[in-house]
TrEMBL record:
Location(s) in or outside the cell: Membrane
UniProt keyword list: ATP-binding, Membrane, Nucleotide-binding, Transmembrane, Transmembrane helix, Transport
GO cellular component, one term: plasma membrane
Cited SUPFAM superfamilies: P-loop containing nucleoside triphosphate hydrolases
Pfam hit, one: ABC2_membrane
Protein's UniProt name: ABC transporter domain-containing protein
Family note: Belongs to the ABC transporter superfamily. ABCG family. Eye pigment precursor importer (TC 3.A.1.204) subfamily.
Organism name: Medioppia subpectinata
Coiled-coil regions, chain positions: none
Length: 605
């Protein structure tokens, strides 16, 4: 095999003291020198293939990366190039120890000659992934302020953090859009694609990383914006940072900005060295290149069989790496405060959340109040009042379920990325989201019930009213479904299958006394059953006289008081407190399952 790249046999001995856990401690902080090297990297995955017939499959191993080695020194900008499927992003993920899924990896990744754990790699590096993910409703300045609060050193004052944020806004030319909401492809039009990419860089540079990884930073940008982005990378490398990025078919102007190249084909290294040496190398193995533009695309068109592969022995000198003990740069309290603020802002600004649901509650409340207006305690009123109670109970349950699904499912990708960036733990995120949403649900539920209660003619005492309110609030127990599903579509499907039997077993559509004995236990799993029973008891327990207006020959049954109405539903008159305890217990259980679901999601991703 022809040696296509020349590697330094010994790395400069430099400690990484002070880097881990001290990201972005000030504008004047020096950048620590970091050399990164990787030795004999091999990556394997498993593919499923049919054997003999379509009914029998077998898992077959497949190798994605073949014995790849390389080195990038401090202050260098390395471009990893190759055709689609060449292994560029896979190699980058191996170096960052992220997004590996079920891949099996062999080999070593060293920083200044010292092996580091994934946690420590995340502490001193930043990874700008191909797809930018932001909350559309935050402005550029708000996003950077949130990042600064959680990713910069906890000893900084608010003034110092704000100074760093303003410095990043100026450095990455974001002044004109600092007060603009970010927006996004599937939201509203906000900042441009180039501004969004610069915002991604600014978010990472806030932590003053010594090592940066970028996955196709010019993807989706025109040639002018792509050149600006690469020029930004080159400037950051000149400050002493070690930067590695993947690039797919750059323009000639962009290609000329790179000084060091790593060309890959079919999971192997075809060439690694200076850009100016690439043409000489290809010519030496029989491939003539006419100009630099062709040179930039040449490596993406070569096959592994025609390229000389590198295999070098490297004498790597191990050194001591200073490792911080904290997993996060700020404590749980500061994480919680920042997450409370962001969740509150997103909830207030999202038209589908508080404002939209309040409008919906008012309109639906007025419509129901008009239809069920002033129901009396008579035979017709019994059916109508119980029907209204059933609608209120189901509406509240469905409202909380749909909003929680929207929150947890739509935020999964950003949650996983921010969590793996060591910005916050799952528990503060969970607490902030649950409390803000509970406050929103309580507000909406109270508005809905207040509009309906006296319009419909529910029992007009303060005790009955507040019991009704408490029961309605306790119905907000549906987080678990959304936390266990990976997509909104999946959660919606599961929601339909989950809610249908709970509604049928609530006691309104099917009298619980007529449910088969072998299935009667299932009603105790329905929080809608507890809510409906509790509200029926609250409404009728104090009604002592119900007039009977039936004809003498009527076959219908007259109820003389509210207790008979309750017993006809196969409910018990003293079940209010039992139902309240049951709903409280189910709420806590659902919340615990939700927390476990979020932990599982972030670890799986």
């Amino acid at each position: 095999m022809v040696v296509a790249m020349e590697m330094v046999s010994e790395l400069n001995v430099q400690k990484l003291d002070g880097m881990i856990g001290k990201g972005g401690v000030g504008l004047d902080q020096t950048i620590q020198s970091v050399d990164i090297s990787w030795l004999n990297i091999e990556v394997f995955t498993t593919v499923t293939k049919s054997m003999y017939n379509c009914y029998k499959t077998v898992n077959m191993p497949k190798q994605l990366i073949f014995n790849v080695s390389g080195e990038v020194k401090a202050g260098q900008l390395l471009a990893i190039m190759g055709s689609s499927g060449a292994g560029k992003t896979t190699l980058l993920n191996v170096l960052t120890t992220r997004n590996l899924g079920k891949l099996a990896v062999n080999g070593e990744v060293l920083l200044n000659g010292q092996a580091v754990s994934p946690e420590n790699m995340a502490s001193i590096s930043s990874y700008i992934q191909q797809h930018d993910m932001f909350y559309p409703l935050l402005t550029v300045r708000e996003h950077l302020s949130f990042q600064a609060l959680l990713r910069m050193d906890g000893s900084l004052t608010n003034e110092e953090r704000n100074e760093c944020v303003e410095h990043m806004i100026k450095k990455f030319n974001l002044m004109k859009c600092a007060k603009t909401k970010i927006g996004g492809k599937f939201a509203f039009k906000g900042i441009s694609g180039g501004e969004m990419k610069r915002l991604a860089f600014a978010s990472e540079v806030l932590t003053n990383p010594s090592l940066m990884f970028c996955d196709e930073p010019t993807s989706g940008l025109d040639s002018f914006m792509a050149e600006n982005i690469v020029q930004t990378l080159k400037t950051m490398a000149s400050e002493g940072r070690t930067i590695i990025c993947t690039i797919h078919q750059p323009s000639s102007q962009v290609f000329e900005l790179f000084e060091h190249l790593l060309l890959m084909a079919d999971g192997r290294v075809a060439f690694m060295g200076k850009r100016t040496e690439a043409q000489q190398f290809f010519s030496s193995i029989g491939y003539a290149i006419c100009d630099e533009f062709q040179e930039s695309s040449f490596g993406t068109e070569m096959s592994a069989e025609t390229l000389a592969l590198n295999k070098s022995n490297n004498n790597i000198k191990a050194i001591e790496v200073a490792v911080g003990s904290d997993n996060y740069r700020v404590g749980v309290f500061r994480q919680s405060v920042a997450l409370f603020w962001r969740t509150y802002v997103l909830t207030i600004r999202n038209p589908r959340f508080l404002r939209g649901q309040l409008f919906r509650a008012i309109i639906m409340g007025l419509m129901m109040g008009t239809i069920f207006y002033k129901q009396g305690a008579n035979l017709a009123g019994i059916q109508n009042i119980n029907g209204a109670i059933n609608i209120i109970t189901q509406n509240n349950a469905m409202m909380t379920m749909m909003l929680s699904i929207t929150t947890f499912c739509m935020d999964t990708a950003i949650l996983c990325r921010e969590h793996h960036n060591r910005m916050f733990a799952i528990f503060p995120y969970f607490i902030a989201t649950v409390i803000i949403q509970f406050l929103m649900f309580i507000t909406i539920s109270i508005v809905f019930v207040v509009l309906l209660y006296y319009m419909i003619g529910f029992y007009p005492t303060a005790t009955a009213f507040f019991r009704f309110i408490c029961t309605t609030v306790l119905m907000c127990t549906s987080y678990a479904i959304s936390s266990l599903c990976s997509t909104f579509q999946m959660a919606s499907t599961v929601l339909g299958a989950f809610i249908s039997p709970l509604v049928l077993l609530s006691g309104f559509y099917v009298n619980t006394g007529s449910v088969p004995k072998w299935l009667v236990w299932a009603k105790y799993l329905s929080f809608i059953y507890y809510g409906y029973e509790s509200n029926v008891v609250t409404q009728w327990i104090e009604v002592t006289d119900i007039p009977c207006n039936l004809e003498p020959d009527s076959t219908n049954t007259c109820f003389q008081n509210g207790v008979q109405v309750i017993e006809a539903q196969n409910f018990t008159v003293d079940s209010f407190y039992i139902d309240s305890l049951a709903m409280t217990g189910m709420t806590l259980a659902y919340l615990f399952i939700t927390y476990l679901g979020l932990l599982w999601k972030t670890r799986k991703n």
